[in-house]
Design goal:
The chain is α/β, with parallel strands linked by helices. It has a domain at 2-193 and 227-252 and 298-314: Rossmann fold (3-Layer(aba) Sandwich), CATH 3.40.50. Helices cover 41% and strands 16% of the residues. Helix 1 (11-23) crosses helix 8 (228-241). It is globular, with a radius of gyration of 20 Å.
Amino acid sequence: MRILVTGGAGFIGSNLISQLIAETDHEIVNLDKLTYAGNPASLSSLQDHPRYRFEKLDICDAAVVNELMMRVRPEAVMHLAAESHVDRSIDGPGEFMQTNILGTYHLLQAALVHWQSLPSDKKERFRFLHVSTDEVYGSLAPDDKAFSETTGYDPHSPYGASKAASDHLVRAWGTTYGLPFLLTNCSNNYGPRQYPEKLIPTVILRCLRNEPIPVYGKGENIRDWLHVDDHCRALRTVCDKGTPGRTYNIGGNCELQNIDLVRAICAILDELSPSQTTTKKYADLITYVTDRPGHDLRYAIDCSRIHDELGWSPKATLDSGMRETVQWYLDNQAWVDQIENGTISGERIGTGQPNETS
């Protein structure tokens, strides 16, 4: 199968492509604009692989997207390209409206024309998989039931609203034009190759540099943490076996307050890489900062549908997955340095607060 992956140089996309190349015989075409979060170094080992090729372009450029779709002629599209940082969406929502909404529209239009041109047997097999987020559902109280596929949309940030809009577009193209789509809403991802502005790599790197670890409010916000490898396997399962027109929630079954997560990372680092500059524990670096506007209290995913219908469930525990993640950052400091000094993306990491969004 030839699969077009959008946003394949990002955190989830690069892990997905690496997994697809390693564990399947699929041919992968990676479409990525290479914004600040797109890191070609994450896929450098595949540069000369015969089943992988990279196309640098912007999904907001309709003409270029149309040309690529007709040239590549994919049998499936896995759409991961998105702006995803909540704080950035608050400071500058325009880019999120462009990429997440308009970009998805152009991709849907190109996929529709391509799909309509296919012979009946290939048309039957074609899939458009749209990867979304649990942030479209809004916020849960501590005792509320977890988000299910029938939970109403109630986004509270420009990022969440832009992803909700893109979800609606995908469903509309399926209902109106018959495009065979699949839609997934995932919980917070973590793992190797995550851009350093996100919460978990921020905590790791602040510890290693003996710098204050900023935590919003009192750290009471709750997230459901999903290892990126489990997420990628879920996406493959949905693409292979999911029912067109169906939504599947993907979660890690691992709810945790942010402050408890931060302390757990500090404890792992105390063990794996004890501080060389102070006798204090890394948790002593935790600093509480003013909370983000509209910060959702709790996200939790009910992933019983994907388990019951498709047989998927997460494999990683938080302890095993977090230890692996911490060790990856300890072993790959050069990857981080390339991003921070601008030699990869051309944009240095800002000094804003960490974001727990996947």
